[in-house]
Design brief:
Number of helices: 26
Low-confidence stretches: 179-201, 203-210, 265-277, 382-396, 521-526, 528-534, 580-633
Helix content: 55-70%
Strand order of the largest sheet: 2-3-5-4-6
Strand content: 5-15%
Distance between the termini: 103 Å
Number of strands: 9
Length: about 625
């Protein structure tokens, strides 16, 4: 830390308890009271340097009091600063540093220690040191600004606070790789203005290591909130990027809000960004005020601060009972980048007094609404902009698809809560547009968990809940599970069986199409490369056999499903005969299809496809045998 030496005399001041004495050989003729400390001094050195002390001494002398005594209750910096002022008046050696220059500058102004009362007086000496040394150095400017807190009204009047903040802002927005500071001040080698390393003042041409843009985060986090807020407010107009300012705000919040560090992932922790160890944390009221100020200072832009940190701020705001506007702003910020969130971030406990549900589902609902509103405003992906094939092939193609997957996972986590009401569950699930879910497997899983945890739901409520999913968008695995799920209503099971049959038919038809293509390719192979590509023909035949095995397995599954449908139809017809009416006919009409005709057509299609497949395979084998016979001849 830079310093400036003043005075030349040997220190003749001694302290005895709560009193200071000047041991120059002459008896003291004045006592100066500063707080609880008494200074036994001499009149002449004081009145020759200070206009205020001159008037006070003259006033006391006119009153004719025997023991001249004056009081200075309002001197900036108190007794410690006046001790340095007295030493300056006596010409005793002392050092001006970044830690005491602000106190001495304010005290000198308060005592009117101008050039009128002596050349090179304290006001001039402190101003020179402040402007030419302190404000040109990052560390010294920071120390001077920290000391302004104790004498803030006087420092503001002399523009010391503003000058320190301007100095820090200029240095923070300058690329540290271009100059010797702040690398030199962080323990690195001394550098020339061009950035090369200096050795004994001579440039070596070597380049120092690059410094990251967060080098000043830890330093400014030592400032009080009012000064830190003013510094950050000045930085943005100076050209500091919003991402860098947001990083500093995050560092400051993590240092003074203990709740933010509890759920911090180990993978995101950084040696450079870890908040320094500190003593007792601030009070809850101070933490609440800090959180609200951080929210006001954060720019309202997407991606400048991580979603995990935003969730941590929101969780802390709920615990500290922050203002509704702060909570609403944090929810809006999260909603802007909800596609970057993780499932564990959404699982926020319910901190309300009612404790209706285990997790705060209402908060997630509001965050989702903010995201959907932003997606709608920015023209997010919709059925008009992305075709079904592309969406089915790339489930993570758009942010809204990622959010749909995230919400389905969240619904599965909160579904076991017995206090979660059906309307709230339905509202959150229905908020996601249909086009955002390429598959409804995740939604089906969450609905199944909810039905399992709420067995008292009526049949109508179950049907209403199951209408949220589209049976056509279930995968084959999900259809197989749903067909055997006793918790689902009968109508849903029949729909699932129907669409599963359609999927199997489509798959079998696709396999036959591939088989035709392979057969056509093998014919071209035989006609064009009869003698040289025997290995290619063998590979084609082997692939054809593998496809045949796959088709046989699919036919077996279709026959099993048809048996299940037949058994179900018989059971329903038995119930219908007991009641005197055809229940199966009613069921068929409700779903808009004739299951019997579908099963028949499925059987006919399976038989015809099987015959066609056998004939094609026989032709292929016959062609191979003919080829071998011609070779032997």
């Amino acid at each position: 830390m830079a310093c400036m030496k003043l005075g030349s005399k040997i220190d003749a001041f001694q302290r005895q308890g709560q009193a200071w004495f000047c041991t120059t050989g002459l008896p003291s003729d004045i006592v100066v009271e500063v707080g609880e400390m008494s200074f036994h001094l001499h009149k002449f050195p004081l009145l020759s340097r200070s206009g205020v002390l001159e008037r006070l001494i003259a006033k006391t002398s006119k009153e004719g009091e025997e023991g001249c005594s004056i009081s200075l209750p309002d001197i900036p910096g108190g007794a410690k600063t006046f001790e340095l002022v007295a030493k300056f008046c006596y010409g005793v050696k002392l050092e001006l540093t970044a830690s005491n220059v602000v106190y001495l500058r304010c005290a000198a102004e308060h005592l009117e220690m101008t050039e009128e009362y002596g050349e090179g007086n304290l006001i001039m000496q402190t101003e020179v040191f402040l402007n030419q040394v302190v404000l040109k150095n990052w560390k010294d400017s920071l120390k001077a600004l920290q000391s302004c807190d104790d004498v803030l009204p006087h420092a503001e009047e002399l523009n010391i606070t503003k000058r320190c903040i301007e100095s820090l802002a200029v240095k923070a927005c300058t690329d540290p790789n271009l100059f010797g500071w702040p690398v030199m001040e962080h323990g690195g080698p001394m550098q020339s203005p061009g950035g090369s390393v200096l050795w004994n003042g001579i440039s070596t041409g070597a380049r120092p290591n690059n410094s990251s843009s967060d080098w000043w985060y830890e330093d400014v986090s030592t400032l009080s909130l009012p000064l830190y807020k003013r510094l950050v407010s000045v930085m943005e107009p100076r050209g500091v990027k919003q991402e860098i300012i947001a990083g500093s705000l995050t560092f400051y919040a993590k240092k003074y809000l203990p709740g933010l560090n509890r759920r911090q992932a180990a993978s995101e922790s950084s040696t450079r960004l870890e908040p320094v160890a500190m003593g007792a944390p601030p009070s809850e009221e101070d933490q609440k005020l800090l959180l609200e100020e951080i929210d006001r200072l954060l720019p309202m832009h997407k991606g400048i601060i991580s979603t995990k940190v935003l969730f941590g701020l929101l969780r802390t705001a709920m615990i500290l009972r922050a203002s509704p506007s702060t909570i609403s702003n944090l929810e809006r910020r999260i909603g802007m980048q909800l596609d970057q969130a993780a499932l564990e971030d959404l699982l926020m406990p319910n901190f309300s007094y009612s404790m209706e549900t285990l997790y705060n589902v209402d908060c997630v609902q509001r965050i989702l609404e903010h995201f959907l509103a932003m997606d709608q405003a920015t023209g997010g992906a919709s059925p008009c902009s992305i075709d079904d094939g592309q969406l089915m092939g790339s489930p993570s193609l758009t942010p809204i698809t990622m959010v749909a997957k995230l919400i389905d996972g969240y619904l599965a986590e909160v579904a076991p809560d017995v206090n979660l009401k059906l309307p709230k569950f339905q509202s959150l699930a229905a908020s996601i547009p249909d086009y955002a879910r390429p598959l409804d497997d995740g939604l089906y899983r969450s609905i199944d968990i909810y039905l399992k945890s709420h067995p008292w739901l009526s049949e109508s409520d179950r049907e209403q809940l199951c209408r949220l999913m589209d049976c056509q968008k279930l995968s084959l695995e999900a259809c197989t599970h749903a067909a055997q799920n006793e918790r689902l209503p009968l109508r849903i099971i029949v729909q699932v069986l129907f669409f599963e049959q359609l999927q199997l038919r489509t798959s079998i038809a696709g396999c036959f199409l591939v088989s035709d293509n392979l057969e056509g390719g093998s014919r071209q192979l035989r006609s064009g490369l009869a003698g040289s590509n025997e290995g290619g023909w063998t590979t084609a035949v082997r692939e054809n056999q593998v496809l045949k095995v796959g088709m046989d397995n699919m036919r077996l599954r279709v026959s099993e499903l048809e048996k299940e449908c037949s058994n179900m139809r018989q059971e329903i017809e038995k119930l219908g005969r007991v009641k005197g009416s055809s229940t199966w006919g009613n069921v068929s009409k409700k779903f808009g299809f004739k299951l019997k005709s579908q099963m028949c057509s499925a059987q006919e299609g399976s038989i015809s496809q099987q015959n066609n497949g056998s004939e094609k395979l026989e032709k292929a084998k016959g062609g191979k045998q003919g080829k071998k016979a011609s070779k032997e001849e």
